[in-house]
Amino acid sequence: METYIAALDQGTTTSRAILFNSRGEIVSKAQYPFRQIFPQPGWVEHDPMEIWATTSRALAEAVDAAHIDPKAIAGVGITNQRETAILWDRRTGQPVYNAIVWQCRRTAEICDRLKADGLGETVTEKTGLLIDAYFSGTKLKWIMDNIPGVRQRAERGELCAGTVDSWLIWNLTGGKAHVTDYSNASRTMLFNIHTLQWDPALCAALDIPMDLLPEPKSNSEVYGHLASGLPGLEDLAGIPVCGSAGDQQSALFGQACFTPGQAKNTYGTGCFTLMNVGGTPVRSRSGLVTSVGWQVAGKTVYALEGSVFNAGSTIQWLRDELGLIQSAPECDRLAESVPDSGGVVVVPAFTGLGAPYWDMYARG
């Protein structure tokens, strides 16, 4: 019997599901957008329940469109927007606050305090990252410090914390698996990329109780199985969830950059260059960051990364906020209709500048 793999791609603006057959061919797919929430300039949020609803709906629709026996699906894999942080109730599954998105700059002052306390070198040495509002750790701290009662609930062990991969796996397994993969964990500013474990000193520096955090796992193993009774996914109960990677690392893997020195560019909401640097972390001298690329069959691969926060989102801004265009492809036609821009330059630093400047306060 033909077997299939279901891939969930939970991105910054849409949730997508794709079914592949054993030859790697796309059999069916479904995709749903969800709201972008901007409470104030530089702040970006998502509704975690909307993330889950659009993801599960896309999976159900893709399976339905494939006209296959759901039992022929060998496994579900996940790739996701990476640094977006969520805190939720361990018993009810209800989020305590909206997801704070990777683009959000609200924790810049927390980062400034950490730098002033002299933590910069420690963070880079242990995590491969720089202290920046981009990464998840300060987002979790902000929720606990600013939403009434959340820190007390966290300290009583009533809450779970994680990035979007953890949130999806927790929901898919009916709350049985609270895990993350090494690639996503390495984007939190709380994870030691040398030991592949949460770092107690960094968690203490950010006042984050360690029992909130998911168990770190490799990128290819069984994390759990789809729970029975998930609305719209009843026929998928028992299928293993057995692959997970942050979107940029999964793109590096998907573009077959298996040899050190090979690199890829991805053009999406933001733009990201990643290079495979092999089995030993390489420290950048030029404002890049180092992350776990993946661990498969016990072998860990590391990556150097340069991050641009606003790319496709800039096109959305031209369309939805300025109203200069009706659709994204119009940008090309407008650009081609004139010899040059007349000296006008846009620096789309709407949520700060990433590599190599790391300026949290820059704006467009």
Tell me about this structure.
By secondary structure, this protein is an alpha+beta fold. The protein has a domain at 4-246: ATPase, nucleotide binding domain (Nucleotidyltransferase, domain 5), CATH 3.30.420.40. It contains eleven helices and 18 strands. The chain has helices spanning 48-66, 108-116, 120-127, 136-146, 150-155, 164-172, 182-185, 200-205, 247-254, 312-321, 330-336, and strands spanning 4-10, 14-21, 26-33, 45-46, 73-80, 86-89, 99-100, 159-162, 179-181, 191-192, 197-198, 215-217, 224-225, 240-246, 263-267, 271-278, 289-296, 299-308. The strands form six sheets. A six-stranded mixed β-sheet has the order 3-2-1-5-14-13. Strands 15-16-18-17 form a four-stranded antiparallel β-sheet. A hairpin with a 3-residue loop joins β1 and β2. α1 (48-66) packs across α6 (164-172). The model has no long low-confidence stretch (mean pLDDT 94).
Compressed to H and E, one letter per element, the order equals EEEEHEEEHHHHEHEHEEHEEEHEEEEHH
Trace the largest sheet across and list its strands.
3-2-1-5-14-13
Might you state the CATH topology name of one domain? Nucleotidyltransferase, domain 5
Gross morphology is: globular
Number of DSSP strands?
18
The low-confidence parts are: none
Label the structural class.
alpha+beta
Percent of residues in beta strands: 25-35%
